[in-house]
């Protein structure tokens, strides 16, 4: 329940319900409902509240006594060709188990990994690393192509990149033409 934690944080910061509502683009009555437990914020609003007070969402929900956020995980999309850049942050979520600069979210643009149950619109959590084990799912950039999720196998002189989809055959690419951006460690999807 967010109520007591939100009230405590708001009072510590010395701001009124009205001022907090204005900061978060919410109605004052919405803040009142959160604090009294009559209403729960949606996930996006919960993240905004956590970010505003620099606390974890787990703290706000009463699941953790740890208040301080360690960092944020960015969500990036590759609507354009992959260009390593810190400008690609679209969505941020509190990080916990890894260093924040090791992780980012990737919005899956297609159903090419349907065999791995990764669908268009899912969000893949990617750990930045340039090497993966055979069979790992990784975000890969191939020379002159957009970055995409692939199952990766490595031989001495080439990578075998496999989309988990029945309509696509594995591709064999020279080692120097492949950039491993990171390993997929988790996939989130909406019900």
TrEMBL record:
The keyword Repressor does not apply. The keyword Methyltransferase does not apply. Keywords: DNA-binding. InterPro entries: Cro/C1-type_HTH, Lambda_DNA-bd_dom_sf, LexA-like, LexA/Signal_pep-like_sf, Peptidase_S24_S26A/B/C. One of its GO terms (molecular function) is DNA binding. SMART domains: HTH_XRE (SM00530). Gene3D superfamilies: lambda repressor-like DNA-binding domains (1.10.260.40), Umud Fragment, subunit A (2.10.109.10). Residues 6-60 form the HTH cro/C1-type domain. This is HTH cro/C1-type domain-containing protein.
């Amino acid at each position: 329940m967010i109520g007591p934690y939100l009230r405590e944080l708001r009072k510590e910061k010395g701001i009124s319900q009205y001022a907090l509502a204005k900061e978060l683009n919410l109605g004052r009555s919405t803040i009142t409902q959160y604090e009294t437990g009559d209403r729960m914020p949606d996930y996006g609003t919960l993240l905004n509240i956590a970010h505003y007070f620099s606390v974890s969402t787990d703290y706000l929900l009463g699941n953790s006594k740890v208040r301080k956020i360690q960092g944020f995980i960015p969500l990036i999309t590759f609507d354009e060709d992959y260009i390593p850049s810190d400008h690609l942050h679209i969505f941020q979520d509190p990080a916990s188990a890894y260093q924040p600069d090791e992780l980012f979210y990737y919005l899956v643009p297609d159903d090419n990994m349907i065999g791995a149950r990764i669908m268009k619109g899912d969000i893949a959590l990617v750990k930045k690393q340039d090497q993966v084990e055979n069979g790992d799912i990784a975000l890969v950039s191939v020379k002159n192509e957009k970055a995409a999720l692939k199952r990766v196998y490595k031989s001495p002189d080439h990578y075998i990149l496999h989309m988990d989809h029945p309509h696509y055959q594995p591709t064999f690419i020279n080692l120097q033409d492949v950039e491993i951006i990171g390993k997929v460690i988790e996939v989130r999807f909406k019900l």
